[in-house]
Amino acid sequence: MHPLRFRRALLSCLALSGAAMLAPVAQAADWPDKPIQLVIPYPPGGSADLLGRPLAVQLQQQLKQSVVLEYKPGAGGTLASQYLARAKPDGYTFLMVLAAHAINDSLYPKLPYDTRKDFAPVSLVATLPMVVAGSAKLPAKNIPELIQAAKAAPGKLTFGSAGNGNTGHLAAEYFSSVAGIQMTHVPYKGSAGVVNAMLAGDIDLTFDSISTSMPHIRSGRMHALAVTSPKRSALAPEVPTIQEQGVAGFDVTGWYAIIAPVATPLAVRQKFSEEIAAALKQPAVQSQLAASGYDPVGSTPQALQSHIDSEIARWAKVVKATGAKVD
Length: 327
Fold this sequence. Notes:
The structure is a single chain. This protein is α/β, with parallel strands linked by helices. It has 11 helices and 10 strands. The chain has helices at residues 3-30, 47-63, 78-86, 100-107, 143-152, 167-179, 191-200, 210-219, 266-280, 283-291, 301-322; strands at residues 36-40, 67-71, 93-98, 119-135, 158-161, 184-187, 205-209, 222-227, 253-261, 295-296. Strands 1, 2, 3, 4, 5, 6, 7, 8, 9 and 10 form a 10-stranded mixed beta sheet that branches. Helix 6 packs across helix 11 (301-322). It is globular and about 65 Å long. The N and C termini lie far apart (69 Å). The relative contact order is 0.18.
């Protein structure tokens, strides 16, 4: 090739590669220029909804674009995850996932997506203790009494959860395993269904997010036996942990994160994670979350990926040890 033609071809290739490298940056600089969809994998009224609403309001103010909550409940959150896996990776569709996202990887024998390959991390938004709540008909008022009652009548006590494979389901199975007891699982479609069943006396207890059960505990229609985290919750400092009541090492803390379809540009995900972190620092948001017991986090995409990887490994061990299955 003639030297002049070679030089022109080289410059052209360099220009194209440079444009390709700058494309994600430019896309992030222009993002968002239309409404954002944040998918919630459970019905309205649950813990994900209670977190998503104030966060969406603040993000709308910061981004100058609508953040629309889209509810896609069902199958322990797997329907919403499947929806996200098939969504266009343009930076306008995101999903709030809970610990069930990591649990489902080992709980379900076959998923319509790959938990490790089909999603890209954005931010770990918050953590939230769970509470072991008893219905009015449950005589046990603490963990030792619960264990004693369960051992006296194996399988008679019923516990409700917001769906097969959700954190409450596996937390109760895990507790049953380490405590050496048997209880019967009754799944519902979301936390609201569990709470209604508890208030009606249809089930004995639940391992539920403290944000959804605490108002009914305060009213006296339910009672708290313990929190599942290693330390007491600031929302209910009078409620002891399961560890304090003799079950050494027990630790189940709920978490909430935002993820995107796998090919969503990193620059967009990084910008969104920064906006989420900024939103979580706003006093109005912090006060709303604190009132429901959430501990705001706001992480980088990289930190979230490490968290999800460790949670997948952790819950795989729990599923294997307990023999938990979807009902």
